[in-house]
Amino acid sequence: MMKIVVLPGDGIGPEIISNTLKVLKAVSKKFKFEIAFEEHLIGGCAIDKYDNPFPPLTQKACLQADSILLGAVGGPKWDKVVSEKRPEAGLLNLRKTMNAFANLRPAHVYPQLASASSIKQEVLGNNLDIMVVRELTGGAYFGDKGRKKYENGEKAWDLMMYNTEEIERVAHVAFKTAGLRKGKVMLVDKANVLESSKLWRETVTKLATNYPEIELKYMYVDNAAMQLIRDPKQFDVILTENLFGDILSDEASMLTGSLGMLPSASLGFGKNGIYEPIHGSAPDIAGQDKANPIATILSGAMMLLYSFDMKKESDAILQAVSNVLDMGYRTPDIIQPEMKLVGTEEMGNLIAAQIV
Ligand code: IPM
Ligand code: MG
């Protein structure tokens, strides 16, 4: 029996999660395996109930789970609370607790949606498929931070620090991932300015000798931000530190036409992981049956593949999503002329119904 902790979170989190559970249940029925879902609070809803965005109960359940499925956290309601108690702090705490140091964010353009991209077709080419491997538990997000008054005001700092092991473990993930794809790793850094980036380059260059079949190249982050728009086809796997990865993965996602389509997996050394859409909690459309559940449904597919080695079960979800897109159904974020507009619930039902 697979034990999955489900963390719907805030905003559109509960709706995209409930529709993902429909799809996972359909898969478990078809392929005859059992999943137990256990729901817990994280983010703003946990602050409301326990005054803590990652309460001990949730923490304990996550540590005992085979895997974790997360919706989204945050919203204007909690914007004013102090930073250690913001919903986002709950998410960072979860990542740290699970030691989920490697964040895989695929940006894959569905041919059916290529015209929804803000980038020209000839720039995108056919079947654009980039994987951002973002370091997730280090750097400025977790380094020493603070504020101090001085005579003319205040100063504030967030230390971006990495050690060899933190770089090596995520780099291994990037090289192995590239081995299953086109065999190319682009290390994105700011080694012309930052000391931490220099350590990244030295460490990754040394480690690359273990992967002679993989091509390793380097790019400064400012150039990478530009090249992603100018010529995205040149990328296969992008390996980068936490903050750069946060920014570049949002950028890469827009190549695909909608943030609402992109899943992610956050992995550590073990088999369990955190699976979540890369988009946020979209409080402006929460509870209105407008959210696109596909990113979360695809996160469920990543979970089956990465945490449970269930390739055909995972592929069944990918195929179901593709079928529903072929049938012309679209949520508001990806609607185009002559397509059929559906809400969150109907999209979930349609995809689940394809799993037979
Ligand atoms: C993401 C999000 C988070 C991050 C926020 C919500 C803390 O933007 O998963 O990309 O910055 O990592
Ligand atoms: Mg982000």
Outline the structure in words:
The structure is a single chain. The protein has helices at residues 13-31, 44-50, 56-64, 87-97, 121-124, 164-179, 195-207, 221-230, 242-255, 294-308, 311-326, 344-353, and strands spanning 2-9, 35-39, 67-72, 102-108, 129-135, 145-150, 153-158, 184-189, 215-220, 237-240, 263-267, 273-277, 329-330, 340-341. With 356 residues, it is an alpha/beta fold. Strands 2-1-3-12-11-4-5-10-8-9 form a 10-stranded mixed β-sheet, with helices on both faces. Strands 6-7 form a two-stranded antiparallel sheet. A hairpin with a 2-residue loop joins strand 6 and strand 7 (153-158). Helix 6 crosses helix 7 and helix 10 (294-308) runs antiparallel to helix 11 (311-326). It starts with a strand and ends with a helix. 46% of the residues are buried. Residues 88, 91, 246 line the site of 3-isopropylmalic acid (IPM). 3-isopropylmalic acid binds at residues 88, 91, 246.
